Amino acid sequence: MDKLTSIEGKAYPFGRKNVDTDVIIPAHWLKTITSAGLGRGAFETVRAEPGNVFEDPDYQGAPILIAGDNFGCGSSREHAAWALGDMGVKAVIAPSFSDIFSGNAFKNGIATVILPQEAIDRLMEVAKTDEITVDLETQTVTTPYQDRFVFQMDPFRRDCLMQGQDEIGLTLAMAGDIGRYEAVMAADRPWL
Hints:
Helix content: 25-40%
Shape: globular
Largest sheet: 4 strands, antiparallel
Number of strands: 8
Strand content: 5-15%
Order of helices and strands: EEHHEHEHEHEEEHHH
Oligomer: single chain
Strand order of the largest sheet: 1-6-7-8
C-alpha cells in the first residue's frame, strides 16, 4: 500500500446520497479476484446518464471523490473500494459512510473523510473549478479560497494510511517477535 499523507487535485463533485456498493460497482463486475480494470466498471449506471461527472474529461483521474450522506451502503463487497482505487481515487469526502465500506476503503489505501453537509456543499462548488487538498497529517481539507475544514479520523487508520501499512503489513512487521514466540511455545509445549 502506498503512503497516503496528502491528496491534492481535482475532485469529482458527485454529491449523491445513499450510493450503495452496487452503484459503485455493479454485480456483474464481481467475477474477478483482482482490482485491475474494475475502474472501467465503476459507476457504470451513473456513467450512462447524460452529462455525468465521471465521463467529463475535466475530472478524469481525479484523486478525490465528494459524495453525499451514507456513501457505500448496501452489500459488503470489497470490489467497491477496489473499483475506486483502480480509477485513481485516494480519498472520499462525505457526511457519512457505511461502516463496512469505510473499513474496506481503509484496507485498500483510501481515506474516508467525514465532513458536515455545509462543508460538502462548499467543496462541491469549489471542485467545479479548482483543486482540493486532503491532508491526513493536519486532518484538514483545504481549498485555494482559504476554506479549511477540520476532520477527525481513527488514529490507528490514519497512522496506517500515512505509513502505507495495511493489517497484513503490520503483522509481517512483527515476524521476528512471532517467530520467537512460536519457538518458545514449541520448546515449552511440544505436544501442540
